[in-house]
Amino acid sequence: MRIGLEIHVALPTRSKLFCSCRTDASEPNTAICPTCTGMPGSKPTLNRNALAISVSIANALKCRVPESTSFARKVYFYPDLPKNFQITQKDEPVGAAGEITIESGKRIGIRRVQLEEDPAKVIRQDDYTLIDFNRSGVPLVEIVTEPEIGNEEELRMFITELKSILYYLGIDIDRELKVDLNISVSGSRVEVKNVTGMKNLLDAARYEVQRQEKLVKAKQGVVQETRSYVEKDMKTAPSREKESDEEYGFIFDPDLASYKTTGIRIAKPVYASKIAKEYSKRYGVKDSALRELIMFNSGNLALIDSAKDRHGMKALITAVELLQRYASKKADPSVFERVVEIVEKGAYPDKEMMLRIEAGKSVEVHAGASDEEIDNEIKRLIGENSKLLKELGKNPKAFNFVVGAVIKKYKSNPRAVSERLERILKELE
Amino acid sequence: MSSITEFLEKEKPSGYTGKMLKELSKLNEELNAFNNIADSLGSGMPFSVKDNICVKGIETTASSRMLEGYIPAFNATVVQRMLDSGFSFIGKTNMDEFGFGSFGLNSTKPARNPFDVRYVAGGSSSGAAVATSILKYHVAIAESTGGSISTPAAFCGVVGFTPTYGALSRYGLIDYANSLDKIGIMARHADDVRSVFDKVRGADAKDTTSIEGEYRREVSKKIILPDQLTKGIDEDVESGFARLVEKLEGMGYKTVHRSIPFIDKAIPAYYTIAMAEASTNLARYSGFKYGYRNEDFTQHYNQFFTNARERFGLEAKRRIVLGTFVRSASVRDEYYSKALKVRRLLIKELGKALQDGFILSPVMPIKVPTFEEVKELTALENYKMDVMTIPPNLCGLPHVSFPYAYHKGMPLAAQLVAGHWGDHAVLGIVEEWERHFDYKFKYNIGEL
Fold first, then answer.
1. Residues B363-385: tens digit of each pLDDT
2. Rounded Cα–Cα distance for residues A295 and A385 (Å)
3. Domains, chain B
4. Which residues of chain A make contact with B276, given a CB cutoff of 8 A?
5. Best residue in A21, A33, A39 to probe B by mutation, most B CBs within 10 Å?
6. ipTM of the complex
7. Three-state SS sequence of B376-410
8. Fewer Cβ in 10 A, N or C end of chain B?
């Protein structure tokens, strides 16, 4: 099976791609001007910030960035396009031939990254349609992958990885995620157009894969076609093809120039999943615990990096978790430092203690219970209640009850208690 | 003294502008120079605006039925700069629909030649040329894509100037072919053109392709005659032009005959690029946001668009169809991409030729034609008439068309082309020529 994606991501610029209208207006048709409504006589002028962000994305996805980049007109007739052509990129996109390494270690090729304008928003009602031009001209980056995603799990990993890379460039993929999916189970390619949001993406992919697999199993063959995702039925259905590549009739957009990419300040990419993998290997901690903390949190990564040469990684992870749970404001390094020191003494601060630390007040630190003490307490709880033992293996509530009781007694680190309990259960098997 | 200064200095009798506008409206019924005339006029030098250039609050249709009722919410940069310089807006001038034509006939009411109404005014800036030819004190803001200033200026006996591409902002111009469209100026004297040009030129943040040019003002005495372009032209045009060359030689100009590589490919390259771009520009007139509003929403999707686009004129339809074809994916390389290559080559070749001289030629291979004569031309014969105006337009070179003689009462005109940013230099030669030449006009509305 081969899945390829065309992902449209809205860029976090204050103004639109080719005019100075705001991108954050909520009242429909209030952030519009002659240019983004295509008034005869208007002309586009490029938002340089959008260009810089798109080049940073291309660079982060390890694309080849050309020395100069230009725009093209893609013609199709649709009510969401006031000019009936979209200004996009064709021959000189901001990026080509890149790749993303997903959690499993597999590399997924990035065919191209291009900068383009978003069409207006079409709001369909029962017997009429409304159009909101606030969205018309919002800068988008389209990321086109090679058809190298092999299954739903890889699809999820790919999106997570992309989302993290973009997060570190200051882009929130969930603000407006629009994806075209290309799925081919047996060789004929089916395109599922305009899937919005992460949940729909996974649902649509799952449905379409199963639909094609069923057809192949029944030896009915899959028709090469364009489909759309029907959210309320969680199904894909055949849709009208707007225009073909032949008919788009791309030409160079003569209102815009050729733009040099050489002077642009490119944002340094951060690959959090690669960092998590490296640290987990180097410091012997769980990859998943680190990923949880740093994939979408640059503050956490900064705290860990600032102290990793002076403290143990396990203590740092625990301290970050504690701050994430209890801190009332963004932690400053000195607070973090104190928490780490306390954790390293074997203690596990509760909420009250955390707030005192945050406020700069003194705290009384007792070394936490030893592993032996924790084990004894667990065994005591299980021994008292034979029903509990039966439940423990299958019921997370029972598991959490035991962990909770131990924490209450010793103020221990929940992760440490969980690990002890898991070990005891294994021994008992 | 420029006629702008003359106009501003002269005492005007009471009721002057009212009388002038009345006289103009009356003559306009016969000549169709204006699509609309202002109700009142300020005290500045009057200027007209071709109807494909936006004037805030004034209906702007590019002489197309598709744009009936389009009232721009903004002024074109050129219009704003004219107003800021104290000029007074007098009206919107007639043209071939969207600029598609060389004779002014692609308009619901074609403009007529002021010297003799049996003759055409030329196109596509037909009304601008007629207005300049009938108003004593006036300058016209016109526009050229492939010869739309040179040709009508030549037929109506006025000076028509097309600047270097990018010298004047295109913001507010209703696009025909964006990489070829140039706003320009018509007037009765070259120094008026120069004076207006210096007020409106220069980079504009609203048009990415506009820049502050590095102008070359020195006037060379070398004139290049491109014999390839003048082969087989009308005999009267040929002999008249030969006399002009003699006179210029008498004034100290040196002439050289030179053949320019690829210049014969200029027409196909031009029409390919122009139509490809035009077909994308006209896409917006689809009956949704712009263009004739087709209210029958029960129609099938494609039928809706077909009906909404019925109001385009024949030439516009032809250019949409041909333009859409030449940029289709399967033939794009053979037509559109190849035409871009030819343009690049020709810019290089003409640039070389124009390093130390000017190209001089007639404006059209024919004398001013009558309506009857033009109606007999096929589309291809029509396009071929642009053989001398297309090379400088395709390459964005500054050029000026000016009358040099009268033949049986109708003007004969020539075109001077300079290298990029030689705008002032070509105007300088025409200014020198004017010292040896008397302009003739049939009308002098607003004379003081």
1. 999 999 999 999 999 988 989 99
2. 41
3. 3-218+392-434 (3.90.1300.10)
4. 249, 251
5. A39
6. 0.93
7. CCCHHHHHHCCCCCHHHHHCCCCEEEEEEEEECCE
8. N
